[in-house]
Specification:
The structure is a homodimer of 181-residue chains. By secondary structure, chain A is of the alpha/beta class. The first copy, chain A, is 30% helix and 20% strand. The radius of gyration of chain A is 16 Å and the shape is globular.
Chain lengths: 181, 181
């Protein structure tokens, strides 16, 4: 069976989670099953509604994979500091992801905002590296979020840094339904 | 009606077209209609198969948008130089996109690999700027491809440069079904 690789999408630009969902879509269209674990995040996002469409019923031709999404967060840290409940959520999430990765039921596993969970000290990089190392070899892994630690740069097979050159936030544009979330 | 913005995803890293399809997925899940015009490309890709799923039938709850994909290419220029037929294809494609953008039937229009078409001289930047300027104001535009010209940086509201830090191509890994195409 083909080896799966580790993708790392980091940097301060828009497009990291977006690219992870784009890759999920590509894989689903190829009949592969995808699990997305979202660290830190707790809100409902439009992209996670795709779960209802990639539910295993698909359309007669072609046959699509299944999408499973779970959130392991209690909201972001723009205006508050992480507390023990955030740590517990992230650790439970990592345990869930460890099962997905080791059992190999999903062909692609997205660890969305894992870098943020690491950056804020919710998770230990050593435990994350153990989880990645113990995956079934064919599983493709996509890790997103700003502030990726050097240890993930080292183990990743593909690293893209999304650099923000310009953003409409600076024009005072708020996050928009169906475009930004 | 809300103003639509111009996104530019450029740079040499993996994730540009992928992010465009991720944004398309997000928009489709929010019930918005999306058109994707692919310049230069002529092959079938897994992600374009999503068209069969977002065909307007959707599932009862929630209701998804429609996806329309067209290709305006005759293949890439890794081992050949563009010829007049490539120019004609790209120009016909731009005319198609001009209709989508001006009539406003689609809420999001992706101009995939437009930058490559410009880089290889298949299209004139002045004509592209005219097409962008004449769009119905609410339409969101996503432009992808390496080598974006400065004129597009100038008119874009959001620019993300995808920088390749590491790629598994360097390990001799070829493009894989459902992951890279």
């Amino acid at each position: 069976m083909e080896r799966g690789y580790i993708h790392l999408y980091t940097g301060n630009g828009k497009g990291k989670t977006t690219a992870a969902f784009g890759l999920a879509l590509r894989a689903l269209c190829a009949g592969r099953d995808v699990a997305v674990g979202q660290f830190v995040k707790s809100m409902s996002y439009n992209e996670t509604r795709a779960e209802a469409l990639f539910d295993g019923r698909g359309t007669p031709v072609p046959s699509f994979g299944r999408l499973h999404v779970e959130q392991f967060g209690r909201g972001c840290f723009l205006d508050r500091r992480p507390d023990p409940a955030d740590v517990a959520c992230a650790r439970d999430g990592l345990a869930r992801c460890a099962v997905w990765l080791s059992e190999g039921k999903y062909d692609v596993v997205v660890l969305d905002e894992l870098n943020i969970a690491l950056h804020f000290g919710l998770l230990d990089i050593g435990e994350v590296l153990d989880v990645l190392a113990s995956r079934t070899p064919h599983v493709e892994v996509v890790i997103t979020g700003r502030y990726a630690p050097q240890e993930l740069y080292a183990v990743a097979d593909l690293v893209t840094e999304m650099h923000e050159v310009k953003h409409y936030y600076s024009q005072g544009v708020l996050s928009r339904d169906g475009i930004d979330h």
